[in-house]
Amino acid sequence: MKDKDTLLALVEGEIARLPLDKTEPSGLYAPIRYILEDGGKRIRPLLCLMGADLYGNHPERALAAAVAVEVFHNFTLLHDDIMDKAELRRGRPTVHLKWGESGAILSGDAMLILAYQILQGGTAAHGTELLPELLAVFNRAAMEVCQGQQYDMEFEVCQTPVTREAYIEMIRLKTSVLLAAALEMGAVVGGASREERAALYEFGVNLGLAFQIQDDLLDTYGDEQTFGKTIGGDIAVGKKTFLHITAMERATAAQQQAILAPGETDEKVTRVRGIYDALGVRTAAEEAITACFEQALTALRRAHTDCQRLTVLETYAYSLMKRNK
User: What pTM was estimated for this model as a whole?
Assistant: First the structure.
């Protein structure tokens, strides 16, 4: 199997070849270039190529699927930032701050269409016969991501407590299913069986859960320069993260009031983080991350009988759990 750096070079090369430089109107395409050229971790396209390489030895055949997933993912980030009124993405001003909300919405819409064009245009590599199957996996994930985002927005305005179970389902939809779909699309191109695809998908779902809870943890306890986003941003806006929900379940009435009380940003972040520390919330999050990751590895080992072929994917999964951004 090809190593991560080789696969990443394939992804970056394919993204660089997207026809965005020569296309007018520039106001539509400049924001797309801005968000795609910023890089990010390219987790989803890498997983897609690794899924293909696991079964087929020709990961480049899955490049169209990989880049389509990456373009779709960045489209969701662009629109999420508008909904969240976020000011930073990967350490840079968000698209809607630079081009305005209307321009950002339209560029996001164009990215969604572009993702489908890329997937359709890849039939020469992955084969026309695979397109319906790839679209079925992609469409299911795309709709579930929208469902997850809707739940996320509803959680922010609901007056009743959000349970951990409801939160896990929300992040499964909003985050995990796209990682899982990227892996499964790669496996489709690689020629995996239904059973192998299902195991790889389960690996992706649990890896995604671990990844998102880790993201919640980093938002509160990470380093701002490394993380690329304002630390404590979730606390400042009262976002119902894994940490917030766990704290509210464990807190006394007085602590709950203190968590929910308004305040100047720095003061509120310090106050709430202190309550989290007192309630052992950080440890609870770390334990949840570990549990999800172990379930992911168990599923991965069912995805292929050759343990050696799993090494690249397993090593990459471990590296994601050691991230600080």
Answer: 0.94
